[in-house]
C-alpha cells in the first residue's frame, strides 16, 4: 500500500470523480423543445454543471447560473455569476433578480433546464415582500450558528424567499422545467437541495416555526412576523404549474461512497459503508466514529482489519466561540481525541466541494499521533475543540487537506483506514 495520506486522497478523488457533472448530465438530457431552451442554476457545482451541459446539448441555449466566489468555470453561452457563500451578499441578490427575469414571459413550447447543487440557498437571496437582504443575512447567520440539520435550515429559508420553495419554477410557468440536481442532502430529497428553487415540497410554516423554537434561533422581528403569516406559504407539490416538470438526481453521496469503496477494493482494502446520510453534532459524530475505529483496531470487531470505513451525510456545528474551522475539521478533531495513542488508524474527513467552513481547506487528516503532535506544537486539542478552532489545530501540525474547489458537491466524505 502507498502511504495512508496518498491512499485516502485517492479515495476522496474517486468519490468526487463519481459526481463529475460531465459524466452524469449526459444521461439525463431532456427532450428538445419546439421553442427556446433557457438554462438557469445555482450552487457550488453549478458553473461546472453549466460547462458540462454546454458540451452535451446539441442546440441553441441561453442561460445564467450563480456559484460561489472562486468556483466559476468557462462557458460560452451560459453566463456565470459569482456571489457569497455561506452568508448572502448583494451579488447574490442581483443574481436572483436576473434568474427570475430570465424565466419570465416563456411559453408552453419553451424549456427551462435548472442546474441545482448544494450551496444554492445562500447564493440565491431574494427577500419576501417586507423583508430585506439584511434580514436574509441575519437568518443565514442564525441558521449557521444553530446546529440545526440542513433539512430544518432549508425549511426556514423557503419561508422568507421569493425564489426558493419551487418559486423559480412557478415563475417559469407555462414553460416545462427539468431540474438536474446534484444532492448534498442526507436522504437526497431534491426539494431540499439549495432550498428547492424549482421543486416544491410539503413543508409548512408550522415546520419552520417548530425548528426555530427547537434550536433557539433569534431571528429579526420582521422575519418572525412574516413566517407567521400566510405570505410565507410556498407552492405545494399538487400545484398544477408543476404538473409537467421533471426532476432528475444526477449525483449523490451514495453513488460517490460506492465509488470510493470500489477504489479501496481496487487497492486491496475491504471497504464498509456505514451510511450516506449521517447527521448530528460534528464532535459527537466524531466521537462515535472514533469508538468504532478503536474497536476494530484493538479487537477486530465489528469488522476485521485491514478495512476502510466510509460514511457520508452532513453534520452540524453549534458555534460556542469564534474559532476557525468547519464541520469536517471539527468532526476530525473530536475523532483524533478519541483515537489518541491508538496505532494503525488513519482518517480523512472532507467536504466534496473542496471547502470546509470559511477557510481554504476541504477538511483534514488525522491518526493516532495527531493529538500528541499538536501537544508538541503547543496546541491543546481539547481546548481547540471547545473553541470551534479545529482549523488552527490541524494547521499547527500541517494536516489540513486542501484540494481546492472540485466543481461538485455531494456533501461530506469520511474515510477511516484501519491497518
Describe the fold and architecture:
With 419 residues, the chain is of the alpha/beta class. Helices cover 38% and strands 18% of the residues. It contains 16 helices and twelve strands. Strands 3-2-1-4-5-6 form a six-stranded parallel β-sheet, sandwiched between helices. A six-stranded mixed β-sheet has the order 7-8-12-9-10-11, sandwiched between helices. β7 (270-278), α12 (282-299) and β8 form a beta-alpha-beta unit. The mean pLDDT is 95.
Between the first and last Cα atoms, what is the distance in angstroms? Answer: 10 Å
Report the principal-axis shape. Answer: globular
Query: How many strand segments?
Result: 12
| Average pLDDT | 95
Q: Which bin fits the share of residues in helices?
A: 25-40%
Taking all Cα atoms into account, the compactness measure Rg is 21 Å
Structural class: alpha/beta
List the strand order in the largest sheet: 3-2-1-4-5-6
Low-confidence stretches: none
Oligomer: single chain
**β-strand amount:** 15-25%
Helix count from the secondary structure assignment: 16
Order of helices and strands: HHEHEEHEHHHHEHHEHEHEHEEHHHEE
Protein name: Glycerate kinase
Domain MOFRL: 308-412
Organism: Mesorhizobium album
Keywords: Kinase, Transferase
